[in-house]
Amino acid sequence: xxxxxxxxxxxxxxxxPESAAGRAYTLVRNRILDGEFEDGSMLSEGQIATELGxxxxxxxxxxxxxxxxxxxxxxxxxxxxxxxxxxxxxxxxLQARQIIESAAVRSVCASKxxxxxxxxxxREVTEEQRRAWESDDLAAFTRADVxxxxxxxxxxxxxxxxxxxxxxxxxxxxxxxxxxxxxxDQAELVLAQHTGLTRLIEEGDAEGFAQATAEHxxxxxxxTV
Length: 225
What we know:
The chain has 225 residues and is mainly alpha-helical. It is built from 9 helices and 3 strands. It has a 3-stranded antiparallel β-sheet with strand order 1-3-2. Helix 4 (87-110) packs antiparallel against helix 9 (206-221).
């Protein structure tokens, strides 16, 4: 199954977290998602191999997988470039997220007492996100951002939509990192809007949530599409 823009995760990839290639893959991927390796930056196999104390062969395997997933572009004898997110991919991710999250909340609001646990959990995650921001931990902030929206989708109880959101969440994480890095004031806006989205769920206002979600995604990521 392909992801957004035909660059989705590769099913049955050879690397595993326990393998040397898996360790290299995880390190590079996380640094891309957290913005440590910026768009357009060049990485070398030797650089990563030295840091992890391994040969270049597993790093090469990791780079190949990351290229297949759309995170990098390899250039023979030059290294690997961190692939910028194209504008159309931003738009597609935002559109998909709005549809999935709005559908989930409609299901939640239609069920008796379906929102109580979700509202409690969203408030917990928003507080975790606030603490991360106050600690100047952007990586933890963006991971909490993903968790907030993942909780919304999971509460809808549709396993197919949850599976599709799994394909989006790494791109969600990277996009949030970029948006917050470009404008630190956006972090406070994220927190305020997450509080508002939670309140709409508590009030059972599914249509208000759908409209507020569209505004939230546009406010946070609109300048990048």
